[in-house]
Amino acid sequence: MTTDLPAAPRLGLGLAAIGRPAYITRGRAADLGDPATRSVEALRDRAQDLLDDAWAAGIRYFDAARSYGAAEQFLGSWLAEHPDRRPAVTVGSKWGYEYVGGWRTDAAVHERKDHSPAMFDRQWPLTVSALGGEPDVYLVHSVTPESPALGDPALLGRLRRLADRGVRVGLSTSGPAQRHVLAQALALPDGPFTVVQCTWNLLEQSAGEDLGRAHAAGWLVVVKEVLANGRLTDSAALPSVARLAAADGQTMDAFAIGAALARPWADVVLSGAVTPQQLASNARARVPDVTGERLRAIAVSPQRYWTERSALAWT
Q1: Is residue 314 part of a domain?
Q2: d(CA 119, CA 174)
Q3: How far apart (Å, rounded) are the C-alpha atoms in residues 101 and 111?
Q4: Tens digits of per-residue pLDDT, 117-131?
Q5: What is the pLDDT of residues 229-283, one digit of tens each?
Q6: The domain containing residue 158 runs over which residues?
Q7: Residue 198: inside a domain, yes or no?
Q8: Coiled coil located at which positions (predicted)?
Q9: Cα separation of 32 and 230, whole Å?
């Protein structure tokens, strides 16, 4: 990839932050305004406009999940309005969490995790109904070492049957043990998985080697949380990264996305934009003219990264 190649062909749009009124991204008050104005209808309108902008920018990968509030419905209604676009896009979604926040920003609990076969049986038809058809990619949402998903024969059998029907089955990962979960999934005999969606960003680079292994094995590698939930944007207090970005002639968000695009194993890098301005800035990303050693020096330990992430407030 050359440094002047537009990001859009490998940039995707993730709907985690626009599909529900509360999320852990910093700066949501500035992005979305008063929480009282974040009705289903208001966020649907925002999502529709954002999807139109993404399409116009050349973005063709769209990511949702059962736990992202009404994200699947928002995406499904947009696809229904533009049926000619469906063959040109890749639609991904995830199961294993359900949204329980009641469309409140102050909910005590926003999502509930369950990787049982019963949960899959319940959520798959809900996904198909919301999207208006089957997704191209379907992931077990946020597999960690505590999850039973990789050792449950009944669940793996269901996922193999789904893969046999042509849906690309995979998993998303979270937490400081991401690389170990991915290694376990790669080592499964007759495993159903050919996709991984993993957190990789300038602060959390620990899974890079294993993502390279997945890519070499023919898996689709999708990078999520590339802006570290708003911590890698110009509004964040990370002067060392800001100086590198400025010296490279990029905003911090574009610089961080460009660093992910530079990974040879990264097939899709997700933008989590919620405004047209954020999306346009993300789409201007280019591979930084900065040595790998200087980029690696930005990283913190996985334990520190995920501890700080878990402390972010839902707003």
Answers
A1: no
A2: 19
A3: 7
A4: 999 999 999 999 999
A5: 999 998 777 999 999 999 999 999 999 999 999 999 999 999 999 999 999 999 9
A6: 8-309
A7: yes
A8: none
A9: 14
